[in-house]
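Usage

Read records sequentially. Each one opens with the input sequence:
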Amino acid sequence: MRRAMLAAALLLFAAPVHAAIPDLSGGGAAEPAAPAQEIEAEQGAEQDIRIAARIRNIFAAIEPLANVGVQVEQGVVTLSGNVAQAEAAQQAEDIASRVTGVVTVSNRIERDLAVNSNLAPTLGGIVDEARGLVRMLPLILVATVVAVLVALLFGAISRMRWLLDKVTPNAFVTELLSSAIKFVGVLFGLYLALKILGATALLGAVLGIGGVIGIAVGFAVRDTIDNYISSVMLSLRQPFRANDHVMIEGNEGRVVRLTSRATVLMTLNGNHLRIPNSTVFKSVILNYTRNPQRRFEFDLGVDADDNPVDGMATGIEALRGLDFVLDEPEPTAVIREVGDSNIVISFRGWVDQEETDFLKGRSIAIKAAKDALEEAGFALPEPIYRLRFDSGSPLALGEGASISQAPRPAPAAPSPATTRKRASGESEAQARSTRPENHIAELVDRERAVTGEADLLDSSRPVE
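and closes with the structure output:
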């Protein structure tokens, strides 16, 4: 009796002390910890017997724990025996600890390593799962039929090109949308099938794994993805037309076609050039075809003693006399620089590329300006080099001395065939012709008509 009263007094004294201890965790208003189970001061043998009987009855209802021995003394439960799985031993300890009146549990259960004890439960579990799968076959069949029907429905929608063409700007985006619809259909059908089977958690796991794999693959093929996205953007923006004369990353030629992977050019030498669309999308594109008017420019030098303004006027007048040089914008000239022995004048004029070949017109303009300057008495000096010889040199030139140049060999006499050709004037007429060179453009048109390959260039959409 005294011991019971003393224990009660100690409990009453300790309760306010525990309540006065502040929370030092720094976590704010944390939930109070559950109070520890109190140990009764007295424990009778009858109560131990009741606890042991209760635990044995529970273990008897659980097949893996049917052979576990239970002993109780003063509320302390001792478990003994052998079980096939380690999880069963932990389960027995958890069950015993929840019985009222149990102070603590001493788990002395050992795992039975015998082959029969471990093999039989495993085989039994496999057999049970197989039986469950057989019973589930009708449900699996229904789920499969639903998934296939949904996938076929979305597949039929993806093949309705007349409908997709109304909502997409070009064939490439239409193909992309069609593939996306098919993928969504398969994914939605799989979701419905797992929903019917009650295994939607499996879909989340599959999508999570697929996301991780997608990120890894994305890093591995990021260049390919970049090129694919660039193809989509180029097909939407339409930066050029077929047969446009362009320069991309220093590569000059006429556009043959724009595919889902590359932009195909035909160089001015007649060769095919494929540039990845990712490079085209990021590059500066110079298009010579968008504006038919194009300015040419060339430099000529006059003697330092001549009047450069008169030289400018003479050259401009020569350019105005050419039929292919446009009057608006009119030809101009500027002094580019003053050298040691000459003054460099830059002449500029405009041509219509639809009527005049740019390089041919520039060449004839250079000749016309040069001839006009020479006829007006302007000297076009050549570079002057000053030579200096040391006094110990075997050859020393005095002041005012000059070095005579070796006479130039006389030009070879033209052959009879060349003489006849020059006499006919065909070569001169061809040299003076400024008609546009359309051979490459004709090759591009011929190839586009013959091959008929897929092209993302759409002439009905504006060029950006």
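Summary fields computed downstream for this record:
- Residues 171-197 form the longest helix (27 residues).
- The CA atoms of residues 21 and 322 lie 105 Å apart.
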